[in-house]
């Protein structure tokens, strides 16, 4: 293996093709480096259902144990189940998953004790440097006393913890279709929902890291088509779709229409503020205007941040926020160690729907106040030049304000848009929202013409 890991060590995790870009030997070195950088005496390790995941997780455990750390292997789990174990046991953790990426990929999501994130600025760069050094120059010296490797089951405790955080006592019977996409939702959902008055209609619950039915990426509308059709066929109350490692959850209403993650963020924020009056709620800058509006209406303090889980988690910790949401359907809870868990957000949706008689479409209408474009990607040769052209076109217009918190955000009384450069691809990502559909479409088309040089 090459000693340059720049292609697989990303901003927040490790991710690449197995075995072309990394293999079990590399995973073993990551285990050793993780222990060295975190100075951990013990770690917890879990993995998803990809064919390469058990071997990579075992190799990581060998590397960690060789440097003296005791390793608790929790086996098959969702990413938020690994975060639960890290929080409950007070241990640094490593989750082997490539989330929604295709089958040939795998990766590692790492955290410190209490599910605190490990990113480029919080240890990942140091871990990468050690692995590169050892790949090129030999393995680290083992500890005088190696650590132990033991197995532990956590699924029941994980489910019990989630259920303790939501009042489901008044919930009426619901029919729920769940598309697990052959990912880890097929492992966690039956246990979490088994005690609830839910008729569960499972789709693609077989754990299969080759993803034979569709990609486990509900952010792509094409991957929701099967769920939407099944909800309508079954006359179900709602549908839930999880990504490959089941840390994100997307919601479909009784008509098969997708519910905006911004609307889910607003709904959950309202419920968390009822539990924690006056609390702070974090939202990233491409969530709907409705999110800070709902937070203020219910006595909370909205805080706007950059896109990305490390920024959300940093702000959660800094402000003591009770909840955070992103338009990518990542939902973060103070009562879950500030970590993201799609399953807990899903339980809030079930509780909100089940405690009143209206259908989901009516329930979320209150939170779906504006017309949105969704994220539109454009491939460009020069991201900076295209962004500058857009800035020049709008800056200085009457009633226009701009900010650079994350890319370029342009705001007026009637609409806003954000244009951000991808960190890994030659793309510009556009999100537009307006008070009505014609205005949104006009601004969207104006900006895209500037971006694409039309």
UniProtKB/TrEMBL annotation:
Domain Alpha-D-phosphohexomutase alpha/beta/alpha: 7-133, 156-256, 262-370
Keyword Signal: no
GO biological process, one term: carbohydrate metabolic process
GO molecular function: intramolecular phosphotransferase activity; metal ion binding
InterPro entries xrefs: A-D-PHexomutase_a/b/a-I, A-D-PHexomutase_a/b/a-I/II/III, A-D-PHexomutase_a/b/a-II, A-D-PHexomutase_a/b/a-III, A-D-PHexomutase_C, A-D-PHexomutase_C_sf, Alpha-D-phosphohexomutase_SF
Keywords (A to Z) from UniProt: Isomerase, Magnesium, Metal-binding, Phosphoprotein
Transmembrane segment boundaries: none
Family matches, as CDD domains: PMM_PGM
UniProt name for this protein: Phosphomannomutase/phosphoglucomutase
């Amino acid at each position: 293996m090459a000693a340059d890991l720049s292609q697989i060590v990303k901003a927040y995790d490790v991710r690449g093709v197995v075995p072309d870009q990394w293999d079990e030997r590399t995973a073993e070195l990551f285990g050793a480096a993780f222990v060295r950088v975190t100075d951990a005496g013990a770690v917890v390790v879990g993995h998803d259902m990809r064919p390469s995941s058990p071997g990579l997780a075992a190799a990581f455990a060998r590397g960690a144990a060789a440097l003296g750390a005791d390793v608790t292997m929790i086996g098959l789990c969702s990413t938020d189940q690994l975060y639960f174990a890290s929080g409950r046991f007070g241990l640094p953790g490593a989750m082997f998953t490539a989330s929604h990426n295709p089958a040939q990929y795998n990766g590692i999501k790492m955290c410190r004790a209490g599910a605190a994130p490990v990113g480029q600025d919080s240890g990942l760069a140091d871990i990468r440097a050690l692995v590169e050094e050892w790949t090129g120059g030999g393995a680290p010296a083992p500890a005088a006393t190696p650590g132990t490797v033991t197995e532990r089951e956590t699924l029941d405790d994980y489910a019990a913890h989630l259920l303790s955080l939501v009042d489901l006592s008044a919930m009426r019977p619901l029919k729920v279709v769940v598309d697990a996409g052959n990912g880890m939702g097929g492992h966690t959902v039956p246990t979490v929902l088994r005690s609830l008055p839910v008729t569960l209609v499972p789709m693609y619950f077989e754990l299969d890291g080759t993803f034979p039915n569709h990609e486990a990426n509900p952010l792509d509308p094409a991957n929701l088509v099967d769920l939407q059709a099944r909800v309508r066929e079954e006359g179900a109350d709602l549908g839930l779709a999880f990504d490959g490692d089941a840390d994100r959850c997307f919601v479909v209403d009784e008509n098969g229409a997708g519910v905006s993650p911004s609307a889910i963020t607003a709904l959950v924020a309202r419920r968390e503020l009822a539990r924690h009056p006056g609390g702070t709620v974090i939202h990233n800058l491409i969530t709907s205007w409705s999110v800070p509006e709902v937070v203020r209406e219910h006595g909370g303090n909205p805080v706007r941040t950059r896109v990305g889980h490390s920024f959300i988690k940093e702000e959660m910790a800094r402000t003591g926020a009770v909840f955070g949401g992103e338009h990518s359907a990542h939902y973060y809870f103070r009562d879950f160690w500030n970590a993201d868990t799609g399953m807990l957000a899903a339980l809030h949706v079930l509780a909100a729907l089940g405690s009143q008689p209206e259908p989901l479409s009516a329930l979320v209408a209150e939170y779906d106040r504006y017309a949105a474009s969704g994220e539109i990607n454009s491939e460009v040769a020069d991201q900076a030049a295209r962004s500058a052209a857009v800035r020049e076109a709008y800056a200085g217009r009457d009633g226009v304000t701009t900010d650079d918190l994350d890319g370029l955000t342009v705001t007026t009384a009637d609409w806003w848009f954000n244009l951000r450069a991808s960190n890994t691809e030659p793309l510009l990502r556009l999100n537009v929202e307006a008070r009505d559909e014609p205005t949104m479409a006009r601004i969207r088309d104006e900006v895209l013409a500037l971006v694409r040089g039309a």
